[in-house]
Specification:
Blueprint (H helix, E strand, L loop, with lengths): L1 H5 L2 H12 L11 H18 E2 L4 E2 L3 H26 L7
């Protein structure tokens, strides 16, 4: 479960670009692979977390922390990408 929730990092970066920069090239028509990856990630988490006996969704504190970790890492990747675009001489040799 943690691996699937951690994989949401890949979805956070383009979502941050879309929300912060108001990028129009990240719509479903322009970049369907991004949104397909998001849907498949969420479907994978649902398959792991939904109780087949009809108990519904059982999320624990670790699941919430894993999702928050994905948002944190995705945001840091987005910010690093923006900083490196502005100041490429700051890259490590």
């Amino acid at each position: 479960t943690v691996a699937f929730l951690g994989a949401l990092t890949v979805v956070v970066c383009p979502t941050a670009s879309w929300l912060v920069e108001k990028r129009t090239d990240l719509g479903f028509r322009d970049a369907p692979q991004v949104w397909l990856a998001a849907i498949l990630s969420l479907a994978g988490v649902a398959c792991l977390e939904l109780d087949p006996a009809g108990g519904g969704l059982e999320l624990g504190a670790g699941d919430v922390l894993s999702a928050a970790q994905a948002v944190g890492f995705g945001t840091s990747f987005y910010l690093t990408e923006k900083m490196m675009a502005r100041e490429p001489d700051q890259a490590l040799p």
